[in-house]
Amino acid sequence: MVLKIRLARFGKRNAPFYNIVVAQARTARNSKPLEVLGTYDPIPKPPPSGEGKAIKDIKLDTSRAKYWLGVGAQPSEPAWRLLSMVCSIYRGIVRQGGGSGSGLMWGAT
Q1: With bands split at pLDDT 50, 70 and 90, how would you rate the model's confidence at 75?
Q2: How far apart are CA 99 and CA 83, in angstroms?
């Protein structure tokens, strides 16, 4: 069973909201996931103090994300960018065997 960490879209038109989920690779984008790791709101909100840059809300259970990466879940590119921003996960790529791009693995600290 191949697992993916990816984004599942919710919200309405022109107001997206994403759940960061662990799901089987062959299931549909919004099908029932194995686990919801967190949420991501890409619409910038004004900062609470009223000054400075607008912020995008990312909530993530980092211990569960590291667990799923440890058991072999493969993050999608957008999910990978969010994971690397929020927690101290590095992209440990180990090439196994020959060929271009074959046998890529993800690691967590």
Answers
A1: very high
A2: 28
